[in-house]
């Protein structure tokens, strides 16, 4: 008799548990946004994205073609297509722009003047590209921890951009910078955000 009541009680509890789990349905899906991440080789694109994905910094290898990372945030998931920044790869960047809903441009704030000029030219090309010119841009001046890093004032030069600090080795406010990009996308406002 005890055995039957135990089975009956378990059956009742399992039915209640099943209803509670199955009848509520799955949690609402977070919206997903497709972004393209560009910048010269050595700017720190892979390191920044790896840090946001909580990956080990020891395993970071420079991207030679492209890679895609899903970067989870509380209210959205960013599917970031990172494109390699070598000379022989940059000429193909535009082939990967289609379908992008935002752009992350990473530059090395401690790079040589020649590399910085090349980065400016690539950024200028991206800002004028027909598939990107209406999208929100997040511009990250990385490597602020290096002695040769340029200051905020050196990057300002009359531009009306929001400027903050960034370092791929310490996460700090980096996730908030991406939330700012999402807010630009959600409000459908074209914004250029420069994070130095």
Describe what you observe in this structure.
- The protein has 196 residues and is of the alpha/beta class.
- The protein has a single domain, classed as Rossmann fold (3-Layer(aba) Sandwich).
- The chain has helices spanning 2-22, 45-52, 87-90, 113-128, 152-156, 174-186, and strands at 32-38, 66-72, 77-83, 102-108, 137-142, 162-164, 192-195.
- It has a 7-stranded mixed β-sheet, with helices on both faces.
- Strand 4, helix 4 and strand 5 (137-142) form a beta-alpha-beta unit.
- Mean pLDDT is 74; it is low at 1-11, 158-171 and 185-196.
Q: Layout of SSEs?
A:
Blueprint: H1 2-22, E1 32-38, H2 45-52, E2 66-72, E3 77-83, H3 87-90, E4 102-108, H4 113-128, E5 137-142, H5 152-156, E6 162-164, H6 174-186, E7 192-195
Parallel strand pairs: 1-3, 1-4, 4-5, 5-7, 6-7
Antiparallel strand pairs: 2-3
């Amino acid at each position: 008799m005890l055995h039957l009541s135990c089975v009956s009680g378990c059956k009742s509890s399992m039915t209640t548990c099943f209803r509670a789990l199955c009848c509520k349905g799955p949690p609402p899906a977070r919206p997903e946004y497709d972004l393209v991440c560009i910048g010269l080789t050595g700017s720190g694109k892979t390191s920044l994205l790896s840090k946001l994905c909580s990956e080990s910094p020891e395993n970071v290898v420079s991207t030679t073609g492209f890679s895609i990372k899903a970067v989870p945030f509380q209210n959205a998931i960013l599917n970031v297509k990172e494109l390699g920044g070598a000379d022989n790869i940059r000429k193909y960047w535009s082939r990967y722009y289609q379908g992008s809903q935002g752009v992350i441009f990473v530059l090395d704030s401690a790079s040589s003047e020649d590399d910085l000029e090349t980065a400016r030219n690539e950024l200028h090309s991206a800002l004028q590209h027909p598939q990107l010119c209406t999208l929100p841009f997040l511009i990250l001046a990385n490597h602020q921890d290096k002695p040769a890093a340029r200051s905020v004032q050196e990057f300002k030069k009359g531009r009306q951009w929001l400027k903050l600090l960034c370092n791929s080795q310490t996460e700090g406010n980096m996730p908030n910078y991406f939330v700012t990009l999402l807010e630009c996308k959600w409000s459908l406002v074209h914004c250029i955000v420069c994070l130095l």
